[in-house]
Amino acid sequence: MSEPVDVVLIGGGIMSATLGTLISELQPDWKIVVYERLSDLAQESSNAWNNAGTGHAALCELNYMPEGKDGSVDAAKAVQINEQFQQSRQFWSSLIGEGVLDGPETFINSTPHMTFVRGEKDVAYLKKRYEALTQEPLFAGIQYSEDSRVINQWAPLLMQKRRAGEPFAATRVPAGTDVDFGALTRQLFANLEAKGAEVVLNREVRGLKKLKDGTWRVRWRNTIGRTPGETRARFVFVGAGGWALKLLQSSRIPEISGYGVFPIGGQFLKTSNPAVVAQHKAKVYSQASVGAPPMSVPHLDTRVVDGEASLLFGPFATFSPKFLKQGKITDIVAQVRPGNLWPMIKVAVDNPSLITYLVGELLKTHRKKVDSLRVFMPTAKDEDWTLIQAGQRAQVMKKDPEKGGVLQFGTEVVSAEDGSIAGLLGASPGASTAVSIMLGLLKDCFPDRIGEWEPRLRELIPSYGDTLNPRPEAAAEVLAETAEALALTA
Description:
Blueprint: E1 5-10, H1 14-26, E2 32-35, H2 76-97, E3 108-110, E4 113-118, H3 120-133, E5 143-145, H4 148-154, H5 156-159, E6 168-173, E7 177-179, H6 181-194, E8 198-200, E9 203-210, E10 216-222, E11 228-238, H7 243-251, E12 260-271, H8 274-277, E13 283-285, E14 299-305, E15 308-318, H9 331-334, H10 338-350, H11 352-362, H12 366-376, E16 386-389, E17 393-400, E18 404-408, E19 411-415, E20 421-426, H13 434-445, H14 450-460, H15 472-485
Helix pairs in contact: 1-6, 1-13, 2-13, 2-15
C-alpha cells in the first residue's frame, strides 16, 4: 500500500487555499495534495462574479446587528465579524511582505462601506446602530447622516431624483474594501505549488473511508476519461462548498448526522457603463425583504475585477436543486438521511416566508428587477443593466433541541472527534473570515501541535490569540499597519 500523504484538500476555493497556505507555513515538510473537480481553480463560490466581493467586516451589513424585540441593538456579533476580518487583513499583509502574494491591487481595493435606509422606523434603527458602533474601537471613523447633501457627496446615485420628504439615513465607513477572492485564491494556490504541493484539476472525489490504521482512503476519478483511483491521507479537509455535505456524509462520521443544506442561487444586475460606474464608489447595503435569507440583503456595489470597475446590484434569489453552480440536479434529494429528514421538514414548515420570498423572486422580470434597483438608484435605466448568474449558496439546516430543525446563517466547521477530517458548511461571510475559520480548525484538529505553531502564527497574524476591540491603541495600530501594507487609502 502506498505511503499516505499528510493532507488532502478537497476543493479549489478560498477555504482550501487558506488552510493549505497556513499548513505550508507551519509545517513545510508536510505533503499536501489538492483535488478540484473542475478544470480551473476558484470557479464556484470563490469566483469574483459568483459573490459580491465584500470584505465582510460588519461595517455595513445590518444582519450582523439586528434590532431586538425591545428595540435594543447589540454590537457583539458585528465586533466578532470585524475581529475575524482583521485577522484576514493581517495574514494577507504578511504574505505580501514575504512575497507570497502579488501586489495588493491585484486582489483588494479601498471601497467605502455604506448602509442606506428609508422610512422613519429604519432611520431610527440605523441611528441607534451608529451610536452603538461609535463606542467600538474597530468601528472608528463611522459616519452618519440624514442630510441629502452629505449623502449625495458619499454616493450621488442614491440621491439623484430622490422623492422629496422621504425619511432616509446613511452610514459610511471609508475603510471598507472590495476583494477579488478568485484572484486571491489563485495566488495562494500558485504559492502552494511552488512550495511542492500537488494541485490536481479535473479530479472529482467520490468517497471517503476511514481505514484501520487511522488514515483516510480518498476515492476519486478523473473527470476526463473517468479513470478511477485513490489516495491515502492522514488528514482530509472538505472545502467543496455545497458538495461538502455529500462527502462528509460518505465519510460516515457521526458528527455530520442531522445536517442538511438548502441551496439558494443568485443573480446580480451588472453595469460597466463608465458614465454610471464613475458616479458610485461604495458598497451600499440596506434591509432585507421580509422572509429573505440574510445572504439576500440588497446592495449596490462597486466591483473591481482584473483592474476593471463595474457596479453590481442584488442579489435576486433563484432556485436550483444543485449544491454547486456546476452540481447535479439530484443533490437536494441525495442528501436525505434518516438523521436529517426531520430537521429539514421542520425548516420547511417553520419558514413559509422563505418559500413566499423565493417564489416572488422567481417571478420577477428584468424590468421588475431594475425597479428594485431604482429603490436604491432612482435614475437607473433598464438598458444599462444586464443579469449575471452568481454562485450557489448552500444554507445550513441542522438539528435543534427545541425547534427540531433550524435554518442557520453563516458557516460551520464539522470535524471528526479525532480531528482527522473536517469540512466546512454554509455561506456568507465565509471568504472574508476564512483565516479565522481555518485557525479554529487547526486548533481543533491539531491540538497537540498548535502550541509549537503559535510563534509562527503570531508572526503571520500579530493579534493571534487575542482580540483588538478591547484594546483601542492596538486596534488603531493594526488597522493603520494593514491599511499601509494593503495599499488602502482609508
